[in-house]
Amino acid sequence: MNKLLLIIEKSKGELFGRVHYEDDLIIDSARSIESLERKMRKLLQQFHNVDTKTIAFEHAYDITALFDKFGYLKITSIAKKAEINPALLRQYASGVKYPSPKQAKKLEDAIHEIGKELTHVAVYAG
Q1: The last residue of a domain, from among 14, 42, 61
Q2: pLDDT tens digits for 91-106?
Q3: For labelling, which of 4, 62, 79, 91 has a CA lying 20 to 30 Å from the CA of 50?
């Protein structure tokens, strides 16, 4: 399986995606991630004759697309865990401001830490 990084961004209610393949940058937009993946597969097949059954996408999100996709994440909790001002993270999430690579890494690490914590949760059924 050929893994390709699909970078997903959100602007004005639409998702934009890009994939680097060989020396080309392939860009398209869609209303959903599934639709964006279908379009990318079609473009890869058209321009590079790629067997789309051999493609698996790994997703990387900008902050706006991240909080849209994972709406159950609480901005205040993520900000606290990442030691980032919650108001600043709200600006990142709304697209008003953009995080530096260092800030983005802090957010990514905080989300991964929360994920690890959740894998150890047991739910008692009384």
Answers
A1: 61
A2: 999 999 999 999 999 9
A3: 62
SS3 120: coil
Distance CA 17, CA 29 (A): 6
- Token pair 């890869």 is found at 44
pLDDT 10s digits, 56-72: 999 999 999 999 999 99
User: What total number of domains does the chain contain?
Assistant: 2
Overall pTM surpassing 0.90 (yes/no)? no
Give residue 68's identity as a one-letter amino acid code. D
- Cα(115)–Cα(34) distance, integer angstroms: 23
Residue whose C-alpha is closest to residue 75's, from 99, 54, 58, 44: 99
